[in-house]
Amino acid sequence: MLGIDPKAARTVWTAFLVLLLVYLVYLARATLFIFVLALLFAHMVSPLVNLIDRVLPASRTRTRAPALALAYVFLVGVVVLLGIQFGSVAVKQAYGLAQKFPSMISNGLTGWQNARTGIESLDALKQQAMDGLQNQLAGIVSELPSASVKIVTAASNLIYLIIIPVLAFLFLKDAESLKRCLVELVEDGERRTVLEDVIADIHTLLARYMRALVVLCCAAFTVYGIFFAILGVPFGVLLAILGGILEFIPMIGPLVSGVTILLVAGLTTGHWVAVIVFLIAFRMLQDYILSPHLMEKGVAVHPLLVLFGVFAGAEIAGVPGTFLSVPVLAMVRIVYVRIRKTRQARLGT
Fold first, then answer.
1. In 3D, which of 100, 139, 107, 140 has the Cα closest to residue 126?
2. Can you say whether the dihedral through the CA atoms of 194, 199, 202, 207 is positive or negative?
3. Which contacts (CB < 8 Å, 24+ apart) does range 48-54 have?
4. Of 304, 303, 310, 307, which is closest to residue 325 (Cα–Cα)?
5. Please, are residues 201 and 298 in contact by the beta-carbon 8 Å criterion?
6. What does the DSSP 8-state code read for residue 117?
7. pLDDT tens digit string along 282-312?
């Protein structure tokens, strides 16, 4: 009537709605990240809940709530036990490292200078490093008032340590009803079948991914702790905890932990070669044997795609984007593979 193609108008309208949805998601990214963490935590706890649910006496009226409650009680006990065993030690070691780190840097530069006598530029390098360190310390002291405000703000964020498990509890408790409501949004037929298959694949993916991360984290903490105890590293517990936690961040996390461990362990023990050989051997074991075995085919993403996702995620959303890059890419891959299989089956028939 007005020279407007109805099909083109619908296409433009659909594209506008998609862009609007993406923009709204971006605006609510902080809240969505909390819900995503809760969903991942739910998948991490799910195997324990299923195990307890199978052990409890069967009943027609019984729900998953008792199993969820027992699983949470067990997890709280484990967290408290680990906090008692390692938390206080890690805090003391962190305080000691903060106090000794300037002198460690100074001693390291002095040793480097003694090993390279005759090079006068090292004196200037050492003096520059010490001057820079003193300036940094002076800046830190001057920023203490504003830092106290930041500490209070960070402490207020600890509420998320309560919110995330609560949201995960609700996800686990109402998982079937939530899935049913989501599936019912699509009419019966091929699309609903595809949606059900995609949901099942994503559930398997997230469960396997979180299981792999937990095992990798525990493996890193255990191996680091044993090696640091053998080598006699003064801050071994702190470094082991740091190395284990950073396993949750793909690519960047292990790199940061490796550099930190090399610097601190090398400066405190002087066994630079032993630390380097250990880090290389452990990363080969972790990245090429243990991780592929745990991830299996469902979470397999090409390393180039992982690197792209890590850097793109960091640019878009910082550390949260880096953390979520691998599962997001794996979910996109699942959706693509499922749709392709459906089209191939349709063409085959």
1. 107
2. negative
3. 48/74, 48/75, 49/172
4. 310
5. yes
6. T
7. 988 888 788 777 766 556 667 777 778 778 8
Which residue, among 164, 264, 261, 253, has the nearest Cα to 217 in the 3D structure?
253
Range of weakest confidence among 9-23, 105-119, 180-194, 298-312 = 105-119
The amino acid present at 280, given as its one-letter code, is: I
CB 310 within 8 A of CB 322: yes
Give 3-state DSSP helix, strand, coil % of the chain, rounded to 5.
90, 0, 10
- Name residue 307's amino acid: L
- Sequence-ordered strand ranges (E) for the chain: none
Q: Which two tokens stand for residue 240?
A: 């082991």
46, 109, 202, 333 from 327: Cα distances, Å: 17, 43, 9, 10
The end-to-end CA distance of the chain, in Å, is 41
Minimal CA–CA distance to 275: which of 286, 265, 287? 265
Total residue length of the chain: 349
CB within 8 A of 4, min separation 6: which ones? none
Say how far apart CA 257 and CA 286 lie, in whole Å. 14
Distance CA 300, CA 306 (A): 10
**DSSP 8-state assignment for residue 290:** I
**pTM beyond 0.90, yes or no:** no
CB atoms within 10 A of CB 330: 23
